[in-house]
Amino acid sequence: MLLEGKRVLVTGASAGIGRAVAIGCARHGADVAINYGRDTAGAESAVAEIKALGRKGVAVQGDVADPETARSFIAVAVDALGGVDVLVSNAGICPFHAFLDMPVETFERTMRVNLHGAYFMVQAAANQMVRQGQGGAIIAMSSISALVGGEYQTHYTPTKAGLLSLMQSTAIALGKHGIRCNALLPGTILTEINKDDLADQTKRTYMESRIPLGRLGQPEDMVGPTVFLASDLAQYVTGAALLVDGGAFVNLQ
């Protein structure tokens, strides 16, 4: 129960990493508010699981690319939970596409959701934490893609590098308020984002062979690292980046 009494907000939490993290935080004692874009059924079932654990849960629909979504999400969460102690900025998209003919709309949409959306969510949550005067924790779900390139991810990898940089800068800006800001860098985690890409068994087998732990990640693999950074166990950790990739990044031989 490392998060007992904490109020945790998770964006993009109707499925995948966000959903696993939201429910995992509830298992550790947190009340949880989730943001989601379109999957109402997924969001409602996630909230049902949170409530089944004896915790408060609420789902708020909204497109994170719209700055107003951040303000409304924080407001509803404060009304439902009484405040904000932790934000996990997780919402993101990755529509795979080649570089030379990347549609402007695809590039701009990816930027608005992944980077702009996170910026406004972090800003809104931080303002609420400052008003409360009790500090807090902000965690951005960056990616191993912040450190390595991808042929069909030229629009995506810069957003993940941006999230890492955002956490480093906000760690400095918000430290005086007792707010810790850290980034998690998942490797290849099996989610809806990469389901089609990894449907090719040859590619999947190759990817698994590059990971020292011998398997692709599951959304639940992100729960422990998130809970740690959100908890008081990490009270002197800020501006940090934690790879959660089964060892893929270091396997260069």
Automatic annotation (TrEMBL):
EC identifiers of the protein: 1.1.1.-
UniProt keyword terms in alphabetical order: Oxidoreductase
Gene3D superfamilies: NAD(P)-binding Rossmann-like Domain
InterPro entries: NAD(P)-bd_dom_sf, SDR_fam
Gene Ontology molecular function terms on file: oxidoreductase activity
Family indicated by similarity: Belongs to the short-chain dehydrogenases/reductases (SDR) family.
Entry-linked PANTHER family: (3R)-3-HYDROXYACYL-COA DEHYDROGENASE, SHORT-CHAIN DEHYDROGENASES/REDUCTASES FAMILY MEMBER
Matches recorded under NCBIfam families: PRK07231.1
Protein name as it appears in the record: SDR family NAD(P)-dependent oxidoreductase
Species whose genome carries this gene: Sphingomonas tabacisoli
